[in-house]
Amino acid sequence: MRFLAYPYVGPEEIRRRSVAAPPGALIHSLPDLQCWLAAHPDALVEGATYVVDLRACLRLAPRRSEHVACAGGEEVLAAGEMGFVSQARTFSVSVVSNLSTGYRPDVACWDAVAESLARAGLSAPSGLTTSVHFRRCPACGESTLVKEQWFVCTFCDADLPLEWNVSARREVDVVAEGGRARRLGLT
């Protein structure tokens, strides 16, 4: 499968502070999620920070963690916030966003999220429950969050492009290998 990899585009000081933090917990299965939620019960109320790493694996960290720390400083296939619901002694993913100001992924990152959740055997919504549109202003160069489908720069009032343009991104081929994913090649 082919996905887009997003580089970190947030403040360099946050990246430097995050270097010492451990990466987010790998979630390969429902028991992994159950163990993580048992260790982080607040996540059932406030959600969690997530990334999908370059092997299409889900990583979770407590809600106020930096996405770049959760990703171990690496590029990601997706990043945002995730919420969970407990049902009949099991858990499912109930909320997924692409809200990450450090990576600013396009809404197309849902495909990588869906793949990571499917590989882990987790039930999930049919798409992003909150989708955020990030754009870089061609006039002033600032990156901005599009609100209410108003594609106008909040810094200089210039029109923003309808297509995602925040940073250079590259395609990553990921294949399943014995129930685990491995990265094939980069283009």
Description:
- This protein has 187 residues and is of the alpha+beta class.
- The longest helix is centred in the first third of the chain and has 10 residues.
- The protein is globular.
**Radius of gyration based on Cα positions:** 16 Å
User: What is the chain-wise order of helices and strands?
Assistant: EHEHHEEHEEHEEEE
Unreliable segments of 5+ consecutive residues: 183-187
Q: Helix content range of the residues, please?
A: 10-25%
Question: What is the spatial order of strands in the main beta sheet?
Answer: 2-4-3-5-6
How large is the share of residues in beta strands? 25-35%
The residue-averaged pLDDT reads: 92
Which structural class best describes the helix and strand composition? Answer: alpha+beta
| Number of E-type strands | 10
| Major sheet details | 5 strands, antiparallel
Shape: globular
Number of helices: 5
Distance between the termini: 13 Å
